[in-house]
Each structure stands twice: as structure tokens, then as C-alpha cells.
Design goal:
The chain has 246 residues and is of the alpha/beta class. It has one domain: Rossmann fold, CATH 3.40.50.720. The chain contains eight helices and seven strands. A seven-stranded parallel beta sheet has the order 3-2-1-4-5-6-7, with helices on both faces. The chain is globular and about 50 Å long. Bound molecules: NADP nicotinamide-adenine-dinucleotide phosphate (NAP). The site of NADP nicotinamide-adenine-dinucleotide phosphate (NAP) has 31 residues, from α1, β2 and α4. InterPro entries: 3oxo_ACP_reduc, KR_dom, NAD(P)-bd_dom_sf, Sc_DH/Rdtase_CS, SDR, SDR_fam. This is 3-oxoacyl-[acyl-carrier-protein] reductase. Keywords: Fatty acid biosynthesis, Fatty acid metabolism, Lipid biosynthesis, Lipid metabolism, NADP, Oxidoreductase. It catalyses: a (3R)-hydroxyacyl-[ACP] + NADP(+) = a 3-oxoacyl-[ACP] + NADPH + H(+).
Amino acid sequence: MSEQKVAIVTGASRGIGRSIAIALADAGHHVVVNYLGSEDAAAQTTALVAERGVRALTIKADVSQSDQAAKLVETALEEFGRVDILINNAGITRDGLLMRMKDDDWNDVLNTNLRGAFYMLRQVSRPMMKQRSGSIVNITSVVGLMGNAGQVNYAAAKAGLVGLTKAAAKELAPRNITVNAIAPGYIETDMTAALGTEALEALLQHIPLARRGTPEDVANAVVFLASEKARYITGQVLAVDGGMVM
Ligand code: NAP
């Protein structure tokens, strides 16, 4: 596999996904920037990627829709001729207590966070198997490892991603494709912006490194797992959480 690779990052318009796209570009890779609703933000990510001297392509697609996930990968293949790296990062939350959780809140979270990752993985598996190489990184969460009150949907989806990661890792290993997961802890993005000062103080008590993580903290770990230096690592879940889960 050449060092200059082609990467698809889902949900790259904002937050962790944007940082991953930039970090992969810094590592010299071409990047497909996927987004759903934030067109201007996605264009900004693409500009930041292109600024680094690699090729960037913006593609709008809802990864929870099978046909749109398929089109996303097909378009990337048409444009670049190969896909070496897939980062399943797109994710949403619809928090609520179990007793009151609406069907839609359950379905939306499972569909985007778990079904979307499956569709993307299935779609890239064929070209990667043909190439006999590939790196896939799924962004799960510490919540998928330890649960969280008010997030049964999110925790189930993220725990599901861990199973998906390990099963796919075993299935694809004979073709030199690695599949790993990263479990971020509490990272400063729009997703966690609503948390009040009190809740934040309480949370920091459980983080040995005593700070929130940055999207760059997560992106650095993703770049490593997608690199040649991680070719003997597969089926693993790496927590990037300041020591929250150990
Ligand atoms: P964010 O700032 O809310 O960004 C979410 C991204 O996902 C956006 O780019 C959004 O695109 C995209 N997206 C949502 N639904 C999509 C769909 N159906 N198809 C394609 N893209 C979609 O979230 P974040 O905090 O960066 O989180 C990124 C990932 O890390 C998620 O999987 C999240 O669960 C995980 N994570 C985050 C934290 C944290 O503390 N922030 C902790 C653990 C895990 P548009 O804006 O274009 O709609």
C-alpha cells in the first residue's frame, strides 16, 4: 500500500470528524469529506483539507440510508480509483430516560450510529478485499463500554459497534484489512456543548487526566490506527478518554 492513501470520513463537517479529516490530510492522504446537513461547514472542512496539498472531495450522504452509503463509496471510487481508509464517525444522540424513550429516538440513533457504520463497512469491504489492504476505524464511545443513564439508545448503538468491529476484524483479516474502534470519552464538540458547569465538574471527577479531550486527541489516535505503523493491530477498542475507563 502506498503511503498516500484515500480516506473516507463520515460526518466530517464538524467536530471530531473534521479534525480526523484534517489530521489524515496532514498525514498526506486524500480525503472524502462526508456530511449530511451542514453544507457550509463541510465546505470549510474540504478547504482545510485541500490547503494541505492533498485532494479533497465533499459528498453529501445520509449514511443510515443503504443507497446513499453505497453512492458515497461509488463516487469516491470513481474519483480516486480506490479506498484505503474508512472512518465511521457520523453519529447523533437523542437522549431520554428509558421509560419515556420514543421509538423514533431509538431508531434514529441506532440507524445512524450502527446501521450507518454497517452499510459503509459492507460497501468498502469489496474494493478493499480486491486490493488486499485497508484500514477501518469505527468511532464508538466510552458510553458503549460502561453505559450511561439517559442514553440506552446511544449506549446500545455504540456497544453494537464494538461487536461489529470485532466480527468484521476476524472476517477481513485474511485480506490484510484491519478493523479497530476508538472509544472517545468526553470531547469538546457540539455534541457535548449543552452540558452545564455543574455536570461538567461532576464528570471531571471521573477523568484522571482532569480535562475534557479535544477532537485532535481523537484524530491523532485515528491517524495511528489507519497508518502502516498499526498493521499488526486489529479488532481492538482504544479508549481516548483521559483515563476514564481503565
Ligand atoms: P457532532 O459535532 O455532533 O458532529 C456529528 C457529525 O456527524 C456531523 O458532521 C454530522 O453531519 C454527521 N452526521 C450525523 N448524522 C449523519 C448521517 N446520517 N449521515 C452522515 N453524517 C451524519 O459530533 P462529534 O462530537 O464530533 O461526534 C463524532 C463521533 O464521535 C460520533 O460518532 C459520536 O458519537 C462520537 N463520540 C463523541 C464524543 C464526544 O464527547 N463528543 C464522545 C464519544 C464518542 P452534519 O452536521 O452535516 O449533519
